[in-house]
Amino acid sequence: MESPTKKTFLQSFCIGAVSGTLSSVILQPLDMVKTRQQLLPRLNIVKHTKYIFRHEGVLAFWKGLVPTLARTVPGVGVYFSALSSLQAACLGDKPPSPSQSLLLGSAARCTAGILFIPVTVIKTRFESGVYTYNGIFQALGSLLRTEGLRGLTSGLLPTLLRDVPYSGLYLMFYTQLKIQSNNILVNQKEVNKVQSLDEDKPKFMNTHNGMRQFACSILAGIFASVLTHPFDVIKTKVQVSKSHLSSVEATKNIFKTNGIRGLFVGLVPRLLRRTLMTALSWTLYETIFQYLAK
Fold first, then answer.
1. 144 or 204, which is more confident
2. Nearest to 267 by CA among 41, 28, 27, 24
3. pTM for this model (two decimals)
4. What is the pLDDT, as a whole number, of residue 70?
């Protein structure tokens, strides 16, 4: 018989991987448009979308899907399982405080970010249209031969500066929004009646609870995305550059050509993709986990 810790770890990994897969397939076109917009800021979302559709075809919106899945599926699994393990080890069954949520989310994402940085580089290059690779393994082999370890870890710093604070901020906002929404529900006069009607229903059938989790996820994702987006722009510039730009050089170039506005190019598609993906992942994760925990 599996120990509770091992079972929880495996459940967290598998559920996180499933939720990450579904979210990635649905939302990949937004990531594609975001990358193109960051590389060519003078065109807006609509113009980039039209160009890709007319000149590259509808399937081009899913360029980079394979490396996205190669990164996201195990990455989300690692993130959720690391988060579950860290929370169990540090807090047990206690709910985390805002600062604890920030640290837990950051530590879990840092683990996943470092492990999957080579695939992140390949994904960005697939989406950019600048590089022509025949597949993810050929791309990794070519990258290793021509650029070595430096190429495989290109953009690691801005990637971590984007993902680690994002996950920490997201988890902090998400847990606090859920607490506040729970308090509002508890104070409603008809809460006892609602609970009595729903107490015999499976947890995953509680539509109201699922919608509340989804709304909290969306809001948390918006706040975290806006605060961390500049590092996403820098990451894209560094990983696509053929001249091995450093993060500092990329930042200087962005300021020189587009000013501070350049650090927020592609915010709208990233905001849509990141918030929807995180919301879908967390809603699926918590809903399935609650059902299995019965």
1. 144
2. 41
3. 0.71
4. 82
pLDDT at 192 over 60: no
Task: Check residue 204 and give its pLDDT.
Answer: 40
Distance CA(211)–CA(188), nearest Å, equals 17
Question: Which domains are delineated in the chain?
Answer: 4-292 (1.50.40.10)
Q: How confident is the model at residue 50 (pLDDT cuts 50, 70, 90)?
A: very high
HEC secondary structure over the chain: CCCHHHHHHHHHHHHHHHHHHHHHHHHHHHHHHHHHHHHCCCCCHHHHHHHHHHHHCHHHHHCCHHHHHHHHHHHHHHHHHHHHHHHHHHHCCCCCCHHHHHHHHHHHHHHHHHHCHHHHHHHHHHHHCCCCCCCHHHHHHHHHHHHHHHHHCCCHHHHHHHHHHHHHHHHHHHHHHHHHHHHHHHCCCCHHHHHHHHCCCCHHHCHHHHHHHHHHHHHHHHHHHHHHHHHHHHHHHHHHCCCCCCHHHHHHHHHHHHHHHHHHCCHHHHHHHHHHHHHHHHHHHHHHHHHHCC
Are 214 and 136 in contact by the 8 Å Cβ rule? The answer is no
Q: Which three-class secondary structure state does DSSP give residue 258?
A: helix
Higher pLDDT, 90 or 207: 90
C-beta atoms surrounding 224 within 10 Å: 24
Q: What is the pLDDT of residue 208?
A: 60
